[in-house]
């Protein structure tokens, strides 16, 4: 298949979601190509995975303000995306709030994976928040990124049940497995243009 839908991933850490998506993108029958990994942290495990998979990487200093990105970094990243003709930006454990030039230029083309069923348990440690709250079901959400925190329209959710003898760690691992599936499902839907947004609802065709 000739693929013209180019994806960039932004990550800060381990990179398991990046790896799962990169593996799918390497398949002939998957309609997207993973062109670039951007990290804000030179220690990110995602870099080693990218090196093994021969995916281009960029380490961009986003500034020392925790959770924020300085304007220089958003400019640099936008230029990289333009050079690589990126169609979709996937945040995968990128621990900063994306605003400014990136959001202006890629509005509707940036998505994020969150380790809880939004709109519950937004922000950091979604798995722990859900576990401590005592929910019977949690899961993961892939959603468009808007100006809020974890507030954009929802593309895919996958549900995980909480067991009586669960721990936060065990639950997090089961959620992570579903994240890996959900992210590729969402990227496929977008790459194949099989959706329409109506208000907050993402209507998906041929599901
Ligand atoms: C994932 O669980 C992802 O949902 C979470 O960070 C982890 C990254 O893991 N993201 C957030 O909590 C963002 N609010 P990974 O580096 O192995 O993909």
Describe the fold and architecture:
- The two termini are 21 Å apart.
- The strands form 2 sheets. This protein has a 7-stranded mixed sheet with strand order 3-2-1-4-5-6-7. A two-stranded antiparallel ribbon has the order 8-9.
- It folds into 2 domains: 1-106, 3-Layer(aba) Sandwich (Rossmann fold), CATH 3.40.50.170; 111-207, Formyl transferase, N-terminal domain (Rossmann fold, 3-Layer(aba) Sandwich).
- It is globular, with a radius of gyration of 16 Å.
- The protein has helices at residues 16-25, 45-52, 71-83, 100-106, 126-133, 168-191; strands spanning 6-11, 33-39, 56-59, 88-91, 110-114, 137-144, 154-161, 195-198, 201-204.
- The protein is of the alpha/beta class and 207 residues long.
- The protein contains 6 helices and 9 strands, in the order E-H-E-H-E-H-E-H-E-H-E-E-H-E-E.
- Helix 3 runs parallel beside helix 4 and helix 5 packs across helix 6 (168-191).
- Strand 8 (195-198) and strand 9 (201-204) form a beta hairpin.
- Glycinamide ribonucleotide is lined by residues 11, 13-17, 92-93, 113-115, 126, 176, 179.
Described by the principal axes of the CA atoms, the overall outline is globular
Question: What's the domain count?
Answer: 2
CATH architecture of the largest domain: 3-Layer(aba) Sandwich
- The top-level CATH class of the largest domain is Alpha Beta
Provide the CATH superfamily of the largest domain. Formyl transferase, N-terminal domain
CATH T-level topology of the largest domain: Rossmann fold
Counting DSSP E segments of at least 2 residues, the number of strands comes to: 9
Question: Which strand order spans the largest sheet, edge to edge or round the barrel?
Answer: 3-2-1-4-5-6-7
| Percent of residues in helices | 25-40%
Cα radius of gyration in angstroms: 16 Å
* Low-confidence region ranges: none
Q: Based on helices, strands and strand pairing, what is the structural class?
A: alpha/beta
The helix tally amounts to 6
Small molecules bound: glycinamide ribonucleotide
């Amino acid at each position: 298949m000739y693929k013209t839908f180019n994806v960039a991933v932004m990550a800060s850490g381990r990179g398991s979601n990046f790896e799962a998506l990169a593996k799918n993108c390497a398949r002939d029958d998957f309609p997207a190509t993973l062109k670039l990994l951007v990290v804000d942290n030179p220690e990110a495990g995602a870099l080693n995975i990218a090196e093994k998979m021969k995916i281009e990487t960029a380490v961009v200093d986003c500034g020392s303000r925790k959770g924020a990105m300085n304007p220089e970094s958003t400019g640099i990243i936008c230029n990289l995306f333009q050079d690589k003709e990126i169609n979709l930006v996937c945040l995968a454990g990128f621990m900063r709030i994306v605003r400014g030039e990136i959001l202006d230029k890629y509005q509707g083309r940036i998505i994020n994976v969150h380790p809880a069923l939004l709109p519950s348990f937004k922000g950091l440690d979604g798995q722990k928040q859900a576990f401590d709250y005592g929910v019977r079901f949690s899961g993961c959400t892939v959603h468009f990124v808007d100006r809020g925190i974890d507030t954009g329209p929802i593309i895919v959710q996958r549900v995980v049940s909480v067991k009586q003898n669960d721990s936060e760690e065990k639950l997090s691992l089961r959620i992570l497995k579903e994240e890996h599936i959900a992210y590729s499902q969402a990227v496929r839907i977008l790459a194949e243009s099989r959706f329409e947004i109506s208000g907050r609802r993402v209507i998906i065709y041929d599901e």
